[in-house]
Amino acid sequence: MSNPTTITADPGVPFVDTVREFDAPVSAVFKAHVDPDLLAKWLGPRSTQTKITEYNATTGGSWRYESGDDNGMAGFRGVFHTVEPDALIIQTVEFEGAPNQVVISTTTFEDIDGRTRMSAHEVYPSVEARDMALATGMDYGVIEGYERLDELLAA
Fold first, then answer.
1. Is 71 a domain residue?
2. Which ranges carry the Activator of Hsp90 ATPase homologue 1/2-like C-terminal domain (predicted)?
3. 125: left (phi over 0), alpha (psi -120 to 50) or beta
């Protein structure tokens, strides 16, 4: 059974907060976020595939991937501002289809008796930009991606 994913997007503020617990140690959950081979196996909904074209998950490193299906791929890119092993990732996220709409994402990893609580706080450039991202079904992709991560961590 998969753990629930809580996604909060309060009206009037350009934030999305996501909290998810995993039945795996922090080191394994963190590694799945910084290892490009693992990331490509779980990121996004089952109906898509992810192709990592660049992924240097270190402070100051950059990243880029494409995600999609037979109907087309969409590009995403960003920069890792801070990477603290097993604790913190601060990065930018930019959907190449909406240039100059950069999101700042802060993700923390917390040990809860051998399990992991992951919390992400995303800051969008405006409420409108956040609402457009949510309208694309972003929440569905996040939830299903974390279900895929559960399966990867259990294997």
1. yes
2. 23-153
3. alpha
